[in-house]
């Protein structure tokens, strides 16, 4: 089998969007600007879809949501020439070829995200060529169904957050991730507001559910050290991305305090990036995203590394490319899950582009044994709400 075509298309959403409400979500820009300003950077309203065709007539789909227009340029100009005419079953060789050819500039960030999109499409083809779902090529079914956590609860009015939590508690979720709306610049008033929001959500979901807390890189080491003892009473399962991804020493210091497990990884890349996080005990939960980290080929290796280090893998964002990795390893106990919403941050844009995503029921997701490849097809229903950049 040979790769005969690679197409990278940017889907740019032009439909209705829900602007960030309230203090929405702390983030890395908060140390520079006001939240209303920083929330403008917090938009993922484009997605690049990669289609790879083979001489046997198969078509595989990959995707990338980090800097999608730049990722397209990287795919068109650098990665396509490296995979054209190649056998997709040589996926380790092809992943290494793309990774090593771009080492000078691509080993972190959008370079790896572009490689991931091509790699996902290759694995979609592999599954389709043997009529097996991708997880069956990685280790098979390790769970009857995948437990998942409801992920949203951005910081709005507390009664709105409580209503949202109640809605999804009633749908059977037993794990919830919420976002903080305040950080170091908001001083003690922000500390109080952060604690109020956690208390409000915990009050609704009860003490017998998992609660995860998301900072999205919006705090710093000093502030987090002050917050951890105050948050411990709410028994969070983890505190996510308190500092920026490059502050590995900060992660390690916070994790070593052993007050609340620190999680991260959605902004880390490659097998070596995660080896560094694990060697330095920087995180207690690894959260790579398979469409960022280097693709399925790379994520599969990281799963094995995490198993050896006894650090659980709970990939960022859910979405089918991550569910196959979670299904195929005991190192991954659960998945993140964004239900389909009006387009807000953009985490939900995936649902407007692809068909095939499983819908959570009672806090579980199922992957079918009889759907080959990644199990996705391109949705036509919302095409008129996208500008497509070929
Ligand atoms: O962990 C997550 O889901 C990400 O950090 C989100 O995609 C981001 O929108 C922050 O909530
Ligand atoms: Mg996160």
UniProtKB/TrEMBL annotation:
Stretches of the chain forming a coiled coil according to its record: none
Keyword Magnesium assigned: yes
Keyword list, A-Z: Magnesium, Metal-binding
GO BP term, pick one: carbohydrate catabolic process
GO molecular function, one term: magnesium ion binding
Domain Mandelate racemase/muconate lactonizing enzyme C-terminal: 158-261
Cofactor: Mg(2+)
EC number(s) from the headed UniProt entry: 4.2.1.90
Pfam families referenced in this protein's UniProt entry, alphabetically: MR_MLE_C, MR_MLE_N
Subunit structure and binding partners: Homooctamer; tetramer of dimers.
Family label: Belongs to the mandelate racemase/muconate lactonizing enzyme family. RhamD subfamily.
Protein name: L-rhamnonate dehydratase
């Amino acid at each position: 089998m040979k790769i005969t075509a690679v197409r990278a298309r940017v889907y740019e959403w032009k439909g209705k969007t829900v602007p960030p409400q309230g203090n929405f979500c702390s983030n890395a820009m908060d140390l520079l600007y006001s939240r209303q300003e920083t929330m403008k950077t917090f938009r993922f309203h484009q997605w690049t879809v990669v289609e790879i065709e083979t001489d046997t007539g198969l078509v595989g789909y990959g995707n990338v949501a980090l800097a999608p227009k730049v990722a397209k340029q990287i795919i068109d100009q650098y990665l396509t020439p490296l995979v054209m005419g190649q056998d997709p079953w040589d996926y380790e060789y092809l992943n290494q070829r793309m990774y090593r050819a771009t080492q000078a500039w691509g080993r972190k960030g959008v370079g790896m995200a572009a490689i991931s999109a091509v790699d996902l499409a290759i694995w979609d083809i592999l599954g389709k060529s043997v009529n097996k779902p991708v997880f069956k090529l990685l280790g098979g079914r390790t769970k009857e169904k995948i437990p998942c956590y409801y992920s949203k609860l951005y910081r709005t009015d507390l009664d709105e957050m409580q209503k949202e939590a109640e809605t999804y508690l009633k749908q059977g979720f037993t794990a919830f991730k919420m976002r903080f709306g305040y950080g170091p610049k908001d001083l003690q008033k922000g500390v109080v507001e952060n604690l109020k929001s956690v208390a409000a959500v915990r009050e609704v979901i009860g003490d017998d559910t998992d609660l995860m807390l998301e900072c999205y890189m919006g705090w710093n080491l000093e502030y987090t050290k002050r917050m951890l003892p105050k948050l411990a009473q709410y028994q969070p399962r983890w505190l996510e991305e308190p500092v920026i991804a490059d502050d590995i020493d900060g992660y390690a210091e916070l994790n070593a305090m052993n007050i609340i497990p620190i999680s991260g990884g959605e902004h880390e890349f490659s097998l070596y990036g995660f080896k560094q996080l694990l060697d330095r005990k920087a995180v207690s939960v690894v959260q790579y995203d398979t469409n960022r980290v280097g693709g399925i080929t790379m994520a599969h290796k990281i799963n094995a590394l995490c198993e050896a280090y006894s650090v659980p893998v709970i990939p960022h964002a859910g979405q089918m490319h991550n569910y196959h990795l979670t299904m195929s390893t005991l190192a991954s106990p659960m998945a993140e899950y964004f239900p389909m919403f009006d387009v807000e941050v953009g985490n939900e844009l995936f649902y407007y582009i692809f068909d095939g995503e499983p819908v959570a029921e009672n806090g579980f997701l199922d992957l079918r044994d009889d759907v080959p490849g990644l199990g996705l097809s391109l949705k036509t229903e919302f095409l008129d709400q996208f500008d497509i950049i070929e």
